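Attaching the record inline, Q. Sequence:
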Amino acid sequence: MEAPDHPAIPFAFCHDQKNFRLLELPPDLLNVVTSADPPVLRIKSSESAPAHAVLCTDNLAYQIRQVQSSNSIFLTKPAKDNHSNDAASSLDSHLSAIATCKSTLELHPVSGSAIPHLKQCLPLYFSNEDGSRPTPVEGRSKRDVFSNIPLADQESERSWVELMAFELDGVSLRPNAEELRSVWKAIRTAADSQGFDLSQQFLARDAWKEAEEDGCPRELVHALLRKLSGNGSQIETDWMQLDRVKFVRWTGAMVLDRERDRIPGGVSITAFMEAWKDELPESWRAHASLDLLKGAYSQPTPSTIVITDDYDAIEAPAPSESTNNLSGKASLRSRKWHEKFKNARR
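Structure, as predicted:
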C-alpha cells in the first residue's frame, strides 16, 4: 500500500499500443556497441533454416532467442494529463504505457565452422574438356554468400580460406581436387624452371604467372597460396612464405586423394610415402609423417592406405551436371613442363 505522504504517479495505457521487442545485450557486445567506434550490426539467417536468426558483428555472433516472461513488462513514457480539470495537475507529468512486452530477446554466443554452409552453396569449379576457362553464368558474390551464413564474417573468411574458395567474374566458387592438382603442378613447374625454393620466401607473381599461362585463373592460385601460407592474407605480388606444417599436410592429402583415384582399394604405404616426399622441397622431405594425416586415412590392410571419404583437407567430390555451365570433364591441359625445363637449362 502506498504511504500517505508519498504523492501518486498517474499511470495510464495509450489507446494505440506500439510494437516493441526488448533485446538484452551481453556485456561484451554492450561494450562494443557503446565504444567510440561501434561496429555495424547485422541480422543473418541460413537459407536452409531461416527461423534461426543470428545477430553478428565482424567477429562476434549471437543466436537470438525469444524468452517468455511471466511478469508484465510495460514500456512507458512521460505524458501530460490533458484531461484533468485541475490546472496544477495538468502541468504534472504522468506515465503512459505505450507497449506491453510479453517476451524478451536474449543473445547467446554461437561459433563453429562455415565450411558446411560454403560447401552447400558454392558450385565446384573445374576446366572444360578442351582446357578452356568456363564462364560462370549464375552464382553469387562472396559478400552475398557471407550475408546468408549465420556466423561472424571472420569465421566465414577462415572457412573460405580453408576451402580455397575464390571469386571469378563475381561468382563464388570452390575448386575440385583435379583442378587443385593442376594448379599445384603449375606452381611446382614454375619453381623448378625459375629456380626458386618453395621452402623459402618467393614472389607470389612467379607462381601465378606460370599457372595463368596454363589456363589456371589467378584467383584460384591466390586461394591455394593463401591456404598454404597459413596467414590468410591477400596475395598479389609480395614475397610470401609457405607454412611448412600446412604445406606438408596438404600435399600428403593431395597425393593420397590422387592415389585413391588411381588405386581405389588402397595404395602401398611405402609407395605413398615416396610419392608424398617427391612433392616436397628437399629440405622438407623428412617432415612427411603419417601423424600429420590423422583422421584423413584408413588402412584396408596393415601395408596399404586410403584417404577417408569425409576428409576436408582437399575437396574431391565428383562434379555435378547441374552446376550451370561450370561443369565439365577433368582438366586435360598440357603443362608442357619438359619444354620449360629444357628452356631453364639453356
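Residues 11-83+90-109 form one domain. Confidence is low (pLDDT under 50) at residues 87-91, 313-346.

More tomorrow.
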